[in-house]
Amino acid sequence: MYSRLYYSIYTFFKTKKNHDSEFNTAGIVFIAQVIHLFLILVTIRHFTNFEIPKYSSNSIYNKLAFFPLGIVWLIIVHRFFRQRIEKMTTRFNKKVLTDVQFTILIIIVLILPLYALIKISGGEFWK
User: Fold this and answer.
1) C-alpha angle 68/69/74, rounded to 5°?
2) Angle at the Cα of 17 from the Cα atoms of 11 and 21, rounded to 5 degrees
3) Is the four-CA dihedral 47, 49, 52, 58 of positive or negative sign?
């Protein structure tokens, strides 16, 4: 799923002559992965009494504690997909999605999971 998302966004940025398509695309894939991870954690918390570990009672400190981990994660995503862009090009037969297909992909992979995350968590991740 993330390979398809990366390749679709990468080709979209290439057609728009983006100055750094690889890193910008890796950033969007990273955001999608974070949304999906937190959606899984919040869903588990919703159905069980599992409490998500927190660094502090103040949510800003929890977000700041995630920041270094997020930077490392983003760099790993960037390096992982940068090495595989040629394989993805042959795998997806150099197919570029239409604007409608691209919009549907973004809605399904980013917007709907984000909406579900906000609804399930009630707007608060660390309680």
Assistant:
1) 100
2) 55
3) positive
Angstrom distance (rounded) from CA 54 to CA 59: 8
What DSSP state is assigned to residue 111? I
- Residue range 37-66: mean pLDDT, rounded: 79
Closest by CA to 23, choosing from 114, 95, 85, is: 85
Would you say residue 62 has pLDDT above 80? no
DSSP string of 31-100, one letter each residue? HHHHHHHHHHHHHHHHHS-PPPP-S-SSHHHHHHHHHHHHHHHHHHHHHHHHHTHHHHHHHTTT----HH
Q: What is the pTM of this model?
A: 0.82
| Calpha distance 62→66 (Å, rounded) | 6
pLDDT surpasses 70 at 124: no
- Total residue count of the chain as it appears in this document: 127
Cβ-contact 42, 117 below 8 angstroms: yes
